[in-house]
Amino acid sequence: MAIPSNINADHAGRTGSVERVTKETRVRLRLNLDGTGCGQVETTIPFLDHMLMQLVSHGLFDLQVQAHGDTEIDDHHTNEDVGISLGQALGQALGDRRGIHRFGHFLAPLDEALVQVALDCSGRPHLEFDLQLRAERIGRYDTQLVREFFVAVVNNSGLTLHIRQLHGRNDHHVVEACFKAFARALRMATEVDPRRSGQVPSSKGVLEQAGGG
Ligand SMILES: [Mn+2]
């Protein structure tokens, strides 16, 4: 299960790499925060692939994911473990969080849907999740798994993440607007602030690290 390398290993980007194998799933994930939007995402969960590609398209992250899991039961374990791996890779890529903007926010419309995301690379895992999803499923994807995905990301990356739906009727639109807003907010927060001169963006002078990085 080799990952074809369309991420240049010599790129001086901030990267995270996770290989996570359990009895339930096997996940390989590489993330480059300083990417150009190269994505190769194969989780065997089509709607999750579609959402992860929003991070690539709108965050301009490079992201490679290969996941296989016990989807014969349901998508829960694979969805969660991809979220855990993404969170760990994000924590690694951020390291001690020197020089970044730290805060990010975005308000993304998608037709009638409007979703707001505000986040802080604080080192303090916290999720406020307020999407009012109506349907049980989007395609075959269980809509309860959206929250589970973000719980996993937050707990493994030390993000403080607020997700709020301002408008929307169609669940596909609402969730996609959420991932677009998350992508742009994360891009804003993780980009290097040239005025920060490599300092840790905290009045304490230190931010907790997450993801084993
Ligand atoms: Mn779509």
TrEMBL record:
UniProt GO cellular component terms: cytoplasm
Chain spans, region Disordered: 193-213
A Pfam family matched in the record: IGPD
Reaction catalysis annotation: D-erythro-1-(imidazol-4-yl)glycerol 3-phosphate = 3-(imidazol-4-yl)-2-oxopropyl phosphate + H2O
Recorded coiled-coil stretches: none
The organism's place on the tree of life at top rank: Bacteria
Predominant subcellular localization, coarse grouping: cytoplasm
GO molecular function, one term: imidazoleglycerol-phosphate dehydratase activity
InterPro entries xref list: IGPD_sf, ImidazoleglycerolP_deHydtase, ImidazoleglycerP_deHydtase_CS, Ribosomal_Su5_D2-typ_SF
Lyase as UniProt keyword: yes
Uppermost EC category: lyase
Gene Ontology BP term (one): L-histidine biosynthetic process
Pathway field: Amino-acid biosynthesis; L-histidine biosynthesis; L-histidine from 5-phospho-alpha-D-ribose 1-diphosphate: step 6/9
Annotated keywords: Amino-acid biosynthesis, Cytoplasm, Histidine biosynthesis, Lyase
Enzyme Commission code(s) on record: 4.2.1.19
Keyword Translocase on entry: no
Subcellular localization: Cytoplasm
PANTHER family associated with the record: IMIDAZOLEGLYCEROL-PHOSPHATE DEHYDRATASE, IMIDAZOLEGLYCEROL-PHOSPHATE DEHYDRATASE HIS7
The family this protein is said to belong to: Belongs to the imidazoleglycerol-phosphate dehydratase family.
Name of the protein in its database record: Imidazoleglycerol-phosphate dehydratase
Source species: Candidatus Synechococcus spongiarum LMB bulk15M
Lineage of the organism: Bacteria, Bacillati, Cyanobacteriota, Cyanophyceae, Synechococcales
Gene: hisB
